[in-house]
């Protein structure tokens, strides 16, 4: 019985992801003014958590290293990311958000959060509590730590 319930939950989770992602993309398009793509926003978000290499970003995004290198080069040219040679391996460069990158990422994230909050505001209090409980459980379940 539990297995059937688990499969139903996993099916609902898979069905819910596309509309949530569409809502995020829509909010991003409305607030980014064409300055960011979703993959660029995700890269900035990842780098905001920790310095990393292009290779690590490519693996995380599931794209080729050349594709990620092009995206990183674009973000470096726009002065949103900085490259610092790795002290242990000069062939590698650590990527970090620049001050401008941090400011732009946080501005866009706040705008997206505001758009999502407007949708969430339409829920009843009990639904909001249930959603928060579910999101907490998902965060714990899929945490990479």
What topology does this entry show?
Layout: H1 2-32, H2 38-49, H3 54-61, H4 65-77, E1 81-85, E2 93-97, H5 99-120, H6 125-142
Antiparallel strand pairs: 1-2
Strand order of the largest sheet: 1-2
Which CATH first-tier class would you pick? Answer: Mainly Alpha
User: Which secondary-structure class do the elements indicate?
Assistant: mainly alpha
Which bin fits the share of residues in helices?
Answer: over 70%
Structure description:
This protein has 145 residues and is mainly alpha-helical. The protein has one domain (2-142): Orthogonal Bundle (Arc Repressor Mutant, subunit A), CATH 1.10.10. It has six helices and two strands. A hairpin with a 7-residue loop joins strand 1 and strand 2. Helix 1 crosses helix 5 (99-120). The chain is globular. The mean pLDDT is 91.
Summarize the model shown.
The protein is mainly alpha-helical. It has helices at 2-32, 38-49, 54-61, 65-77, 99-120, 125-142; strands at residues 81-85, 93-97.
């Amino acid at each position: 019985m539990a297995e059937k319930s688990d499969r139903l939950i996993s099916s609902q989770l898979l069905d819910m992801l596309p509309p949530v992602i569409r809502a995020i993309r829509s909010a991003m398009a409305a607030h980014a003014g064409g300055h960011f793509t979703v993959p660029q926003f995700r890269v900035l978000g990842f780098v905001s958590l920790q310095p990393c290499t292009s290779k690590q970003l490519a693996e995380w995004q599931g794209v080729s290293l050349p594709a990620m290198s092009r995206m990183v080069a674009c973000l470096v040219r726009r002065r949103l990311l900085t490259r610092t040679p790795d002290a242990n391996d000069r062939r590698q460069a650590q990527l970090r958000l620049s001050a401008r990158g941090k400011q732009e990422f946080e501005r866009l994230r706040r705008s997206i959060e505001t758009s999502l909050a407007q949708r969430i505001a339409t829920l009843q209090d009990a639904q909001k509590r249930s959603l928060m409980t579910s999101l907490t459980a998902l965060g714990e379940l899929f945490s990479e730590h």
